[in-house]
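Design review, sub-item: ligand-bound model
Attendees: FS, YL, KQ
YL presented the inputs for the fe (ii) ion complex:
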Amino acid sequence: MKVMWTDELSVGVPELDEQHRRLIDLLNEFYDAIERGDDEQGICKFLEGVEEYTVFHFCAEEQFMIEINYPDLERHQKAHQILISEVKSAQARYQNGDRKAIRELSAFALAWLYSHILKVDKKYGNYCKECPFLNTNLIAKRSSNKCLENAG
Ligand SMILES: [Fe+2]
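KQ shared the predicted structure:
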Protein backbone atom coordinates (compact mmCIF):
# COMPACT_ATOMS: atom_id res chain seq x y z
CA MET A 1 0.00 0.00 0.00
CA LYS A 2 1.24 3.43 -0.88
CA VAL A 3 1.62 6.24 1.62
CA MET A 4 0.26 9.73 1.08
CA TRP A 5 1.70 12.79 2.75
CA THR A 6 -0.59 14.43 5.28
CA ASP A 7 0.04 17.36 7.61
CA GLU A 8 -0.12 14.90 10.46
CA LEU A 9 3.35 13.77 9.32
CA SER A 10 4.89 17.23 9.68
CA VAL A 11 7.79 17.46 12.13
CA GLY A 12 7.62 21.26 12.05
CA VAL A 13 10.92 21.72 10.20
CA PRO A 14 10.16 22.53 6.53
CA GLU A 15 13.47 21.24 5.16
CA LEU A 16 13.00 17.85 6.83
CA ASP A 17 9.31 17.70 5.90
CA GLU A 18 10.39 18.27 2.30
CA GLN A 19 12.87 15.38 2.52
CA HIS A 20 10.19 13.13 4.00
CA ARG A 21 7.85 14.00 1.13
CA ARG A 22 10.59 13.20 -1.38
CA LEU A 23 11.30 9.89 0.34
CA ILE A 24 7.60 8.98 0.32
CA ASP A 25 7.45 9.87 -3.40
CA LEU A 26 10.47 7.70 -4.16
CA LEU A 27 9.07 4.76 -2.20
CA ASN A 28 5.69 5.11 -3.92
CA GLU A 29 7.41 5.17 -7.34
CA PHE A 30 9.38 2.10 -6.33
CA TYR A 31 6.12 0.40 -5.31
CA ASP A 32 4.53 1.33 -8.67
CA ALA A 33 7.53 -0.03 -10.59
CA ILE A 34 7.15 -3.37 -8.80
CA GLU A 35 3.39 -3.49 -9.38
CA ARG A 36 3.89 -2.66 -13.08
CA GLY A 37 6.32 -5.53 -13.27
CA ASP A 38 9.29 -3.46 -14.45
CA ASP A 39 12.31 -5.50 -15.46
CA GLU A 40 15.22 -6.18 -13.13
CA GLN A 41 17.25 -3.28 -14.44
CA GLY A 42 14.39 -0.86 -13.84
CA ILE A 43 13.72 -2.18 -10.34
CA CYS A 44 17.40 -1.95 -9.43
CA LYS A 45 17.51 1.64 -10.64
CA PHE A 46 14.58 2.59 -8.39
CA LEU A 47 16.08 0.70 -5.50
CA GLU A 48 19.41 2.49 -5.90
CA GLY A 49 17.60 5.83 -5.93
CA VAL A 50 15.69 4.94 -2.77
CA GLU A 51 18.82 3.76 -1.02
CA GLU A 52 20.88 6.78 -1.99
CA TYR A 53 18.24 9.26 -0.88
CA THR A 54 17.56 7.36 2.34
CA VAL A 55 21.24 7.41 3.29
CA PHE A 56 21.37 11.14 2.55
CA HIS A 57 18.21 11.90 4.51
CA PHE A 58 19.25 9.88 7.57
CA CYS A 59 22.62 11.62 7.52
CA ALA A 60 20.90 15.02 7.36
CA GLU A 61 18.55 14.15 10.20
CA GLU A 62 21.30 12.76 12.40
CA GLN A 63 23.50 15.79 11.76
CA PHE A 64 20.52 18.00 12.58
CA MET A 65 19.95 16.17 15.87
CA ILE A 66 23.62 16.58 16.78
CA GLU A 67 23.41 20.31 16.13
CA ILE A 68 20.31 20.83 18.26
CA ASN A 69 21.79 18.68 21.05
CA TYR A 70 18.97 16.20 20.82
CA PRO A 71 19.23 13.84 23.80
CA ASP A 72 17.81 10.73 22.11
CA LEU A 73 20.16 10.68 19.13
CA GLU A 74 21.61 7.23 19.71
CA ARG A 75 18.28 5.42 19.80
CA HIS A 76 17.16 7.30 16.71
CA GLN A 77 20.33 6.31 14.85
CA LYS A 78 19.69 2.67 15.72
CA ALA A 79 16.20 2.92 14.22
CA HIS A 80 17.69 4.30 10.99
CA GLN A 81 20.21 1.47 10.96
CA ILE A 82 17.37 -1.07 10.97
CA LEU A 83 15.97 0.27 7.72
CA ILE A 84 19.39 0.45 6.07
CA SER A 85 20.12 -3.17 6.98
CA GLU A 86 16.69 -4.25 5.70
CA VAL A 87 17.45 -2.56 2.37
CA LYS A 88 20.86 -4.20 2.14
CA SER A 89 19.60 -7.66 3.02
CA ALA A 90 16.71 -7.40 0.53
CA GLN A 91 19.17 -6.33 -2.16
CA ALA A 92 21.34 -9.34 -1.43
CA ARG A 93 18.34 -11.72 -1.42
CA TYR A 94 17.11 -10.26 -4.71
CA GLN A 95 20.51 -10.67 -6.32
CA ASN A 96 20.51 -14.28 -5.15
CA GLY A 97 17.31 -14.88 -7.06
CA ASP A 98 14.71 -14.31 -4.33
CA ARG A 99 12.09 -12.39 -6.34
CA LYS A 100 9.87 -11.82 -3.31
CA ALA A 101 12.56 -9.84 -1.52
CA ILE A 102 11.88 -6.61 -3.37
CA ARG A 103 8.12 -6.63 -2.94
CA GLU A 104 8.54 -7.34 0.74
CA LEU A 105 11.07 -4.55 1.07
CA SER A 106 8.79 -2.06 -0.65
CA ALA A 107 5.90 -2.87 1.71
CA PHE A 108 8.18 -2.89 4.73
CA ALA A 109 9.88 0.40 3.87
CA LEU A 110 6.61 2.27 3.29
CA ALA A 111 5.09 1.05 6.55
CA TRP A 112 8.35 1.64 8.39
CA LEU A 113 8.71 5.21 7.13
CA TYR A 114 5.15 6.16 7.98
CA SER A 115 5.40 4.91 11.53
CA HIS A 116 8.97 6.18 11.95
CA ILE A 117 7.98 9.74 11.03
CA LEU A 118 4.92 9.64 13.28
CA LYS A 119 6.47 8.00 16.30
CA VAL A 120 10.19 8.75 16.16
CA ASP A 121 10.86 11.80 13.99
CA LYS A 122 8.06 13.75 15.60
CA LYS A 123 9.89 13.50 18.90
CA TYR A 124 12.70 15.74 17.69
CA GLY A 125 9.98 17.99 16.27
CA ASN A 126 8.48 18.29 19.73
CA TYR A 127 11.89 18.81 21.26
CA CYS A 128 12.43 21.70 18.82
CA LYS A 129 9.26 23.35 20.00
CA GLU A 130 10.91 23.74 23.38
CA CYS A 131 13.73 25.76 21.88
CA PRO A 132 11.98 28.31 19.66
CA PHE A 133 15.07 30.53 19.70
CA LEU A 134 16.81 28.08 17.36
CA ASN A 135 16.32 28.55 13.62
CA THR A 136 15.71 24.86 13.09
CA ASN A 137 15.05 25.14 9.37
CA LEU A 138 18.39 26.85 8.82
CA ILE A 139 20.13 24.21 10.94
CA ALA A 140 18.41 21.46 8.92
CA LYS A 141 19.56 23.03 5.65
CA ARG A 142 23.12 23.34 6.91
CA SER A 143 23.06 19.73 8.10
CA SER A 144 21.76 18.57 4.74
CA ASN A 145 24.44 20.48 2.86
CA LYS A 146 27.08 18.84 5.00
CA CYS A 147 25.73 15.42 4.03
CA LEU A 148 25.64 16.37 0.35
CA GLU A 149 29.27 17.49 0.53
CA ASN A 150 30.29 14.25 2.22
CA ALA A 151 28.44 12.22 -0.40
CA GLY A 152 29.96 14.14 -3.29
FE1 LIG B 1 14.40 9.59 11.45
